[in-house]
Amino acid sequence: MLALKRDRHAAIRRLIAERPIGSQGELVDALSTLGFEVTQATVSRDIAELGLAKVMRGDRSVYVNPEALGREARPPSDERLRRILADIPVTIGRSGLILVLTGQPGTASVIAQAIDESTLSEQVGTVAGDNTLIVLFPDEPALERWLARFESLQAPAVPAMIPTEALAR
C-alpha cells in the first residue's frame, strides 16, 4: 500500500508536467483514468506533500512541480507534528489495523496534515473529522512501527540536565 502512495505521487508529478491541471477535481479525474481511486481530500494532501504550486498559464491557473519554480520539494519533517502534539493532547485508540486519534474540537485536520508532512510513512492513509482522525495500516508490523514512532514524537522533550555545580554559581 505504501507503494500505492509513491506511485500516485509519481503519477501526479507526471500529469501536471504533461498537461495543464487547474483544480483538485481535475486531478482526481485524471488519476482515476490511470486507475487510482482517490478522493479530493487525498489529492489535497498529496499536493501539499509534493510542494506543488499554482501559477498562471495563459488565462488559467495550473499546478506545477516545485522544480518548475526553481525550488526543491519540501523534505518531510517531524518538527511541525512535534509542535502540534506538544500543544494538543491526543489520545489513541485502536480497532484492528486502524488507529483512532482524538484531539480537541477542530484539530483533526491539522494533525492529519502534520502527519502527512512528517517522516511517518507506513500508514496507508489518514481521514480526519472534527476532533477525530483515523490512520489506516496495511498490516500489524507497520501499525506497531508507526505507533512507536508517533508516541516518541508525542513524548515531551527531555530537558538537558544542568550540572548542580553550574546552578551554584
Describe this structure in words.
The protein has two domains: 68 residues, Winged helix-like DNA-binding domain superfamily/Winged helix DNA-binding domain (Arc Repressor Mutant, subunit A), CATH 1.10.10; 76 residues, Gyrase A, domain 2, CATH 3.30.1360.40. Helix content is 46%, strand content 17%. The protein is built from seven helices and six strands; from the N terminus they run H-H-H-E-E-H-E-E-H-E-E-H-H. A hairpin with a 2-residue loop joins strand 3 and strand 4. It is globular, with a radius of gyration of 19 Å.
Give a quick summary of the entry.
This protein has 169 residues and is an alpha+beta fold. It is 46% helix and 17% strand.
Low-confidence stretches: none
The CATH class of the largest domain is identified as Alpha Beta
Helix/strand/pairing category:
alpha+beta
Major β-sheet annotation: 4 strands, antiparallel
Number of helices: 7
Query: What count of domains describes the coordinates?
Result: 2
